[in-house]
Amino acid sequence: MKKTHKYRRVLLKLSGEALQGKRSHGIDPDICAFFASQIKALVKCGVQMSLVVGGGNIFRGAPKSSEFEMERTVADYMGMLATVMNGLALQNALEKKGVATRVLTAIQMHQIAEPYIRRRAVRHLEKGRVVIFVAGTGNPYFTTDTAAALRGIEINADILLKATKVDGVYSADPVQHKDAEFYTQLTYMEVLKQGLRIMDSTAISLCMENKLPILVFQFSGKDSLRKIIVEGKQEGTIIH
Q: Most CB atoms within 10 A, among 17, 114, 120, 152?
């Protein structure tokens, strides 16, 4: 197939909160359908799409654990299970649009998802199936950002796309600091030295060591992904 896009294989990181839309929690079917439509268009262009989704719309691990006097490991495992629920919701939305999709989980649960095996994941991508990675890395104390970096490296993704609520990376929170500086590009070391809260330091370090570029962008308009992946337009902040 003739290449008509800038990136051949992509890993998209979505937060759990992105799936709740304007709700206070849970999953908004309309938002899932919106994401599925954009992803379907990319698959039709020949892009190999994979996703890692968080679970903060259902249960977040570490920050919530102290509220319930819960052990960190227990809370993190509950957060991993929340990502499985989100992954299944996205799979359902994609398959309703006729997109072949596989959910691969780091915590084995044979009745509802395939166990994560790197070669199997790559094979699915080569066959044009969307692959959704869930349950994080399968270990507590690691965020879904780290899981996204790890899976992106393992499948030899061309880029890791991180969808956020803002249009890129700023020197400070642009909502609270109107004079915050917007960055069009950064190096991995600049992110680490400045303590910019894009992804946790483990995720940034993994990407730096394995030369996986990260693009932080706002997933808002219906053409957000197409402009970046197919047209190669610079949106948001590139970290490399």
A: 152
* For range 157-164, the mean pLDDT: 94
* C-alpha to C-alpha distance for 52 and 144, rounded to whole angstroms: 7
pLDDT in tens, 171-223: 888 888 888 899 999 999 999 999 888 899 999 999 999 999 999 998 776 67
Q: Say if strands 237-239 and 185-186 run parallel, antiparallel, or are unpaired.
A: parallel
DSSP string, 44-87: HTT-EEEEEE--TTT--SHHHHGGGT--HHHHHHHHHHHHHHHH
The secondary element (H helix, E strand) that includes residue 105 is strand 101-105
CA-derived radius of gyration, the chain: 17
76, HSE (Cβ side, Cα atoms, 13 Å): 14
Distances (CA, A) of 96 to 33, 37, 40, 204: 9, 10, 11, 35
Residues in contact with 180: Cβ distance below 8 Å, sequence separation at least 6, in sequence order: 170, 171, 172, 173, 174
Q: What is the pLDDT of residue 1?
A: 40
Location of structure tokens 């061309």: 158
C-alpha to C-alpha distance for 101 and 81, rounded to whole angstroms? 19
- The C-alpha atoms of residue 220 and residue 164 are separated, in whole angstroms, by 9
Write the DSSP symbol of residue 233: -
Task: Name the pTM for this structure.
Answer: 0.92
Phi, psi angle pair for 239, to nearest 5°: -115, 120
What is 9-239's CATH number?
3.40.1160.10
